[in-house]
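Recap quiz, item 2
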Amino acid sequence: MADNLTAERADKTVVTAPADDFADDALADDVLVEEVSIDGMCGVY
Amino acid sequence: MLTEQFEHGLAAPICLTWELTYACNLSCVHCLSSSGRRDPRELTTAECQAVIDELQRMQVFYVNIGGGEPTVRPDFWALVDYATGHDVGVKFSTNGVKITPGIARRLAGQDYVDVQISLDGATPEVNDAVRGRGSYEVALRAMRNLADAGVAGFKISVVMTRHNIGQLEEFKAIADRFGAQLRITRLRPAGRGAGVWDELHPTAGQQRELYDWLVAHGTDVLTGDSFFHLSGYGSALPGLGMCGAGRVVCLIDPVGDVYACPFAIHPSFLAGNVRDPGGFAGVWQHSGLFRELRHPQAGGACESCSAFGSCRGGCMAAKFFTGLPLDGPDPECVKGHGGRALASDAAAAPAPRPSPDHSHRTAPHRAGEHRPVPLTLSRRPPVPLTLSRRAPVTACNADPLAGFVLEP
Amino acid sequence: MACAASTEPAGRFDLDAPWRLDAQVRVRPEAFGALLYHFGTRQLSFLKSPALVEVVRSLAAQPSARAACTAAGVPAGDLMRYARALQTLAASQMICKRDAA
């Protein structure tokens, strides 16, 4: 995991995602399609 | 992770909010847009149509229209038709003042228009303390009209506060009674909400109660991803689970200003204006603010917390308006980190003031005071408001009911 | 015409049947692929592969999903992965089988 956090600026670090290479489909089942409820996005209405 | 997609910027927002007017017949104590008085610089009908044309070109799926009270604009229904006639769906939010039986029948025949009624108490006592005397009756009447006209699945939207968390089951019952969908959302310290947040936001115990209730109701109850900051309690709630400001959501305000989020109406989150040469598309695609927000965000102080993967540091607007740093805990952090940060910052600089303020001058909101707004709504059916005079409608007319035409 | 809820056993996508997008689905191209929005179900889907977008767009014009994948340049070794993706879309009524012509 993230042992390579690099400070690009004093107040910013890049959070690396877990190694989840999309080209590697052995474990990633529906990696090509991700569903989100339209209501599941921050908004007022 | 979807965040990687957002880094390059989506072709268009997914959850676009468009506040059509700052005018409103109510003065809800927690109004996130500090609405009441019309802003004389409001976008004209032609300018609104031009925005809709842009949304069509950008292939925006639908737009969430609100305000203020959007239906007090004389061109509201024409704009809704213009949008749906140009491939843009409309979901609009209203306090119900203009949802007459005739309007309800009209809505029943429109496929790409959804309506949401605001309600903040399951009883008049609780609701009207926040929204004004008579507002409960107006909302319930609108719901009856919608149900009677066969408008299936309209939404009832509730802002959760210390005083209505105990009414969750009653809200569900009201929704069930009208065949409506219940939606509950988080109170943010935005707009007039900043002044009442301390006294109205749920207690820690109530937050837990709310989380458990949401988990029990699954996708039966909508949340607009309002409560992703509670995911630190356990399994994540359904939804994107992160702040979407400038990435999947943004706001167009009544004078065309584009903000990163409807809860962040403040110069710090102003990305541009639809009247700029590049229009809305130009702002969405090229704004420096949005480019900044789309860059992977530093978790800062939160990164070492076990809950960070679920809560992602919570709501940017909630942090901003309580004076907390954006790379730190949410003020309502379930681990208590936010509460401790607020307590330790008590002597620090005051929190940013929300702006601009379009509140009614006759019922000035004072921070720290929570009392019902002394509004009297006439009960003469079918429209609850009686105009005793009609002022000339000019651009300078700040009367929210300017040009308001009573329809049968 | 709207897609009925899929009655296919979960995980078994019929690649050799003819398919189509539901009439209420809108497809918006994005840098990573596309966004699909179903106006009936209010479901939003992220398609995270341009090839998958091409497959979905061409379903109605191809005799089978398999043919659509081939035409879109999907390598044989990737076919199962694309079938799983199509199954997800079928389960949420974004796509459905065409009636026999």
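Residues 36 and 360 of chain B are 5 Å apart (CA to CA).
The two ends of chain B are 52 Å apart (CA to CA).
End of item.
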